[in-house]
Amino acid sequence: MGWFSRPAAPVSHAALLREGDRRAAGAAALLSPNHMLTCAHVVNDAVGRDLLCAERPTDEKLLTIAFHGSGRTSLYGRARLSVWVAPEPRSGDVVWDGDLAVLELEETAPEWATPVVWRDMTEGLELRAWHGGGVGITYADTVAGFRDGPGCYLDGSLTGAAIGPGYSGGPLRVKSDRTVAGLVIAQVMPGQAPLRAQETVRRSWAMPWQTVREHLTHAGAHDILAGCEVVAPDHLACTGPAEDSVRQMVPLLRALLDDTARRADHCRHLAAGLGLEAPSGGEQPAPTLDELATLLLTEERALATLTESLTPVVGSHGGDDRATLNGLLALGRAEPVVRLLSVIEHEQLHTALLKVATGEPELIPGAAQEALRLLELPEALTRSPRLAVKDVDAVVRALEEYPDGRGGTTGSLPVPALLRLAEFVAAGVIDPDRRRWLRAWCERVAGRLGISVAALAERRADAEAWAARVPAPVTQVIVRLHRAGAADPDRFLCEIWLGHKDGGRTAVATPEGPMEPAEIGRLIRQTADGSEAPSGHAPTRVDVVVKADGLDIPVDQWDAGSVLRELFPDLAEPSTPLGGRYQVTLRCPDLTGRVPTAASEMRRRWAVGGDGTLVVDESSHDITSLHKLLDKPHRDTARVVIHGPPERRQQLLHVCLAMGVPVVLWDRDAGSHEDAPRMDALEPTGPLDKLPLRLQEFRMSQYAASASDGAARPALIWEEGELALPGPLRLADPS
């Protein structure tokens, strides 16, 4: 046994109890503080039904659960069934598929009952299970064997306890690392054909984590899965550091810690930081240099934690010892296991960024976009303009592995990506105390890493310059819509940006799922009102980006809501559609992007088109005639007004956009060419630059007069300038 040792980790157990005798019907795995996982047949047993009954229990009564900890600590509670995956017997087989149940706890699990950490199950893993009663002596050791479809067989030795009744639903803990690889399902009963009794003495079967994950995904339990902690098997493999790495590190450690008493002091500090135990007696006063080097290269935060205690002794800069410490850190940077931050540094930064993500969720992604412009950011920083609290730890861990980037000052070590982000967050945070704390944290970490004061000051100056920039005034609200799917045609997926006068775009946080038109209208109005400039003017233009099949979406008619109605829902206030509040126009880059020349043609038509207009009437109401007109006599025309019935309107719109026409106006409700006069009050061929304003006033007059069904419903495509937006919506399965 080495100088450093790991204390035995306490194991807590969870169980589902029968209603009658309060004995364990089976065990359970704690997924999160609010959810636990067991077998569906354990739930059936607990409520007094046949074990393999497939129907979900209908009474939805609260179930009794128990948590057992070390020292015979027990706590009882209640839970309700949340997810049901019915057991499905296989024809002619002794095992069955399915058989999962997720329970939602009425009260949060006790702190000492820790959620399991999952890993994939592979053949040969040595596993341990416990009876649901939680008594330590009931442990049963087994080994993962043959994988049979969604399940995996287990075989135990002929000594000790065996998996049997009461073990079902319990986690199968990997003996080497205490992760959980699957769930106990049942034992194989003796005498079941085609097996003989002696062949099933210690055989049982389990559901691997891979199958658990698949079943819960199909059951729609995405939020529950998102809360599960999972590690990849390659992160668990402990092959030890390479001999060359240990050999290179030992001379540096000898130069710094050759004195045994000094080495013991620093190693006790290191052990305490890593949660390890050090000898209390005097038999082995300090670890050997080889053992210390091995620990520094296998425990991810060991090297940073050791150098944290060494830095005050050797100094932040200069001297032979500092050069040796820098060499030690340089060796660590080349090792994949070694992480940037010490245990304390990581905890401090994680806590600080959690507070920022809670109070200012847009700040960290925005700061990362600027601080790390040349790097590919972690997905959690790019999928949304707001950083979710649950993603903070993953972001910190990911950025610890990023390259150091530019140093700035000659001869200085570069400032790591994580410190650059922390400096930018500090510059942008509202709370001055949090700003001072983050900067002090950066200075401490930079000093430990041997980064010069000047190099860190350069990054801080960059951050201050970024935070001091006043964004250009907002001139437009850009909305991208996509139909939720054929099963839900009246709801839409929505993304929103603010368009600034200088051409910049700022993303606005929006719900991820489908929304009702009224919800989107209210969100657009709240976004526009919330981006009011210091001069008191809010943007009046709303550009709606749609796909080719979305040009008929009546966004201008959607209710924008009002502050009064949000404060007083019973107030009988008339609605104000978006088209009356704002200059609502359509854009369709999806269609124009299919034609290589469309974008350049639009720019050319804007430059030379003037106020010329092509009015599509009976003589040109087919795609061939329209194409010829736009190709020759109206090659420079920037505006087309389409009249006539709706049968060919979609094709005519597509021709206009493909030919690079930037402005197209039509009556969405027109039934024939006889309806053309309905838009006369709009002056369709009047001054082009005032057309969006005239359209807004026309719509407002319609709404104010409670226009009848025979009134025009004009729609306007207005493709002006480039529209640089992020990639397409990430769409979920409409089902």
Estimate the helix proportion, in percent: 25-40%
- How would you describe the shape? globular
Main sheet?
6 strands, antiparallel, barrel
Q: How is the largest sheet built, in terms of strand order?
A: 1-2-3-6-5-4
Share in β-strands: 15-25%
Average predicted confidence as pLDDT: 86
Write the layout of secondary structure elements.
Elements: E1 13-17, E2 24-32, E3 35-38, H1 40-46, E4 63-68, E5 74-89, E6 96-105, E7 117-118, E8 126-129, E9 140-148, E10 151-155, E11 171-174, E12 180-187, E13 203-208, H2 209-218, H3 222-226, E14 229-230, H4 233-236, H5 243-257, H6 260-274, H7 289-298, H8 302-314, H9 320-333, H10 343-359, H11 363-371, H12 392-400, H13 417-428, H14 432-449, H15 453-468, E15 474-483, E16 492-500, E17 505-508, H16 517-530, E18 541-545, H17 563-567, H18 578-581, E19 583-587, H19 589-592, H20 598-608, E20 613-616, H21 623-631, E21 639-642, H22 649-658, E22 663-667, H23 691-704, E23 714-718
Parallel strand pairs: 7-14, 15-18, 18-19, 20-21, 21-22
Antiparallel strand pairs: 1-2, 1-4, 2-3, 3-6, 4-5, 5-6, 8-9, 8-11, 9-10, 10-13, 11-12, 12-13, 15-16, 16-17, 22-23
Helix pairs in contact: 5-7, 5-9, 6-8, 8-9, 10-14, 11-13, 13-14, 13-15, 21-22
Structure overview:
The radius of gyration is 34 Å and the shape is globular. By secondary structure, the chain is an alpha+beta fold. Helix 5 runs antiparallel to helix 9 (320-333). The strands form five sheets. The protein has a six-stranded antiparallel β-barrel with strand order 1-2-3-6-5-4. It has a six-stranded antiparallel beta barrel with strand order 8-9-10-13-12-11. The model is unreliable at 234-238, 406-410 and 729-735 (pLDDT under 50).
